[in-house]
Amino acid sequence: MGHRSSFFKENCLPNTCYLRLNRYPPCPTAFGIHGLMPHTDSDFLTILHQDQVGGLQLVKDRKWIAVKPNPDALIINIGDLFQAWSNGVYKSVEHRVMTNPKLERFSMAYFLCPSNDTVIESCREPSIYRKFSFREYRKQVRDDVQKLGSKIGLPRFLTHEGSSNI
Ligand SMILES: O=C(O)CCC(=O)C(=O)O
Ligand SMILES: [Fe+2]
């Protein structure tokens, strides 16, 4: 896509990526409860493993669809940084987890993150996002969650060009 092929190798290092282990207890009392609220991941890519219980859903064509559980497969989710880096060609996927009334669920997510100083810059002109460091992105997300109660994410970094195209 016009980026250096060594970009990930140089910027996403073992100590900048992380693994999250998720446990969702059964939720017998109510139907349609979020185990994890709708969100996009603030990284480049997430490699996800879910067990056989199911509950992961993603937005496709503006509708929530369930991801069929397959413990033998890994799911690769595109994150916000990949969207910015590709100038919006690849979209960060919105996803959520619904709880199961009877079964406990486990998942494992590996987040491919760069170092805080890494500058995320789009490969094409005109760029729809201004360039930003991962540190700046994380701070903006943290500040928005604190002040507004939810993440705004990439729309905060739209350029004039990007704003007039959405
Ligand atoms: O548990 C899952 O399937 C999804 C986990 C997830 O989206 C996350 O940890 O960001
Ligand atoms: Fe996620």
Structure write-up:
By secondary structure, this protein is of the alpha+beta class. It has one domain (7-163): Sandwich (Jelly Rolls), CATH 2.60.120.330. It contains 4 helices and 10 strands; from the N terminus they run H-E-E-E-E-E-E-H-E-E-E-E-H-H. It has a 4-stranded antiparallel β-sheet. A 4-stranded antiparallel β-sheet has the order 2-7-4-5, with no helix packed on it. Strand 4 (56-60) and strand 5 (63-66) form a beta hairpin. The radius of gyration is 17 Å and the shape is globular. 25% of the residues are buried. Fe (ii) ion (FE2) binds at residues 39, 41, 95.
Assembly classification: single chain
Second-tier CATH architecture: Sandwich
Overall mean pLDDT score? 94
Would you state the CATH class? Mainly Beta
What's the helix count?
Answer: 4
Q: Give the terminus-to-terminus CA distance.
A: 22 Å
The low-pLDDT segments are none
In sequence order, what are the helices and strands, one letter per element?
HEEEEEEHEEEEHH
CATH topology: Jelly Rolls
Kindly estimate the percentage of residues that lie in beta strands according to DSSP: 25-35%
